[in-house]
Amino acid sequence: MAIATTRTPSRPAITVTAADHAMLSRIAAGAANTMPDLAAELTHELDRARILPGSRVSADHARIGSEIVYRDESTGRETAVTLVWPQDADIEKNRVSVMTPIGVALIGMAAERSIDWTTRSGEVRRLTVIAVGEPAGEAVSL
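and the corresponding structure tokens:
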């Protein structure tokens, strides 16, 4: 007799810089009381991230300041955003805070990778990163 099980899709590997990891960890800890679900999701992502030491960065992975093009797989819609710290967010300029559901889903992602994320309304959606651009004004090395 076979037992039916529900498998959660595995999450793609993510990579963050040591500096971003430290700052994001502090932000998640600070948001634990005001945004507990989002803080827990960010902490989970940080716990599984590959952390680049010192000043090393990867041009292939979304980080603070990266310009990211992603596709919502349920609608097929492509969106271009810049991932920013919470104080720099401006939705009219497509500057998305890392402390939003989509920001948490995008941090550390590489192009051609997909991840499930939960919208503010509780709907689970799948997004695929199409492209990751270097943050403006930064040299990239790995």
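(Above: one complete record from the training split.) Strands lie at 15-17, 50-52, 67-72, 78-84, 95-97, 114-118, 124-133.
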